[in-house]
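for the writeup, i need someone to sanity check this before i put it in the appendix. the sequnce is what the collaborator sent (i think, or maybe the updated version? ugh). structure was predicted straight from it, no edits. if anything looks off just tell me and ill rerun, i have time this weekend
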Amino acid sequence: MDALRDVPPPLPPPLGLAPIDAAQRIQALDVVRGFALLGIFLMNIEWFTRPIQQMGSGIDPAATGADHAAAWLVYVFVQGKFWVLFSLLFGMGFAVMSTRGGHGPRFRRVYARRCAALLGFGLLHAILLWSGDILHAYAIAGVLLLAFGEIDNRVRLWLGAGLYAGIALLVVLAGLLLSALPADARAGFAEMADEMDATAAAAARVFAEGGYWQATAQRASDFATVSAQGLLMMLPLALAVFLIGAWLVRAGRMDDVRAQRGWFARLALWMLPLGGVFVALSLAIGTRFDGMREAGPMMLANGLMLLGSLPLALGYLALLVLGLGTPVLSRPLSWLAPAGRMALTHYLLQSLVASTLFYGYGFGLWGQVGRAGQVLMVLAMFALQVAASHWWLARFRFGPMEWLWRWIGYGTRPPMRIA
């Protein structure tokens, strides 16, 4: 018997705009969000023990043996794909919230406050824990998404897909042009690379040996010079993926996944091979680059990887939804739902734990744990997070940060404990 026959039909939306209980949530979204948390941590943990100035240059050249194998697997199957999957969920959440609460003035006020709170969380996260924060970009792109709330749903899809593909193709084109430059024209890139290497080495020394306030100053500097400057590309990319996620919900694909299995099977059959082709082309260019000294090949490989990340994220989404409809996978996948309900709390908690483990003011493991060891640490911590989520949500309605976020957004303190 189809396992999804035992799943109750979706509950009607609550009246008005207010925090909702677990029974009114779309479980498939929570499962996917929980799964995305694992991928996000697998990707992020490397940058708690490697200078963020090297982000985009591929696999660490120091990785060998099992560490190289683990780094390659994360690079190919996780990096770039899971932030897209997480971004799809943000767009879906926006669509669910606007559908249940209407798109009137009160919804816009609440949503704007939620984005402002998310921006504050992101900036504090970047300065106090880890400069690679993405919440601030989500907050700004979320405000931009508000301007597209009433457009036709098909326009939403094509606008999102076109914007994403356009930016990725621009990166590919830039990589091709830089690769075609003569050697003497690329001399300036070598000087930039020397400066970047010196900056990365200085940052590594601070994080490996410095105290908390030294690390905080370095995080602020890294955020201003690396993360904030990356907003020029990150904002339109995030907005594009938000639009596609909103389209999925508005098209009714996530309301009743029982009725959408055929559609998700077709989505997986189309998206996974398409994404695989672009990833394979990227791998053919290379997986390790000497920073700006190889700016052309590096940008070309990153652009091709970017083109593959969106279809692969959609393919992962489809596989998860299909897995929820199989007797063998539905129960273990459902265990991820509570972690998905506490995604903001867990995202910040991952940074707190990783910074404490790797930075000099904590356990000082900077540079001492290879990529394989990092993967094992992520798996162990994520298992603890899933178990803790079940314990917490058996007693409380929201995770701690989710509760605070709702309090700021709605302007009233929601009850925390389950009656």
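Residues 295-323 form the longest helix (29 residues). The chain has one domain: 24-410.
thx in advance!!
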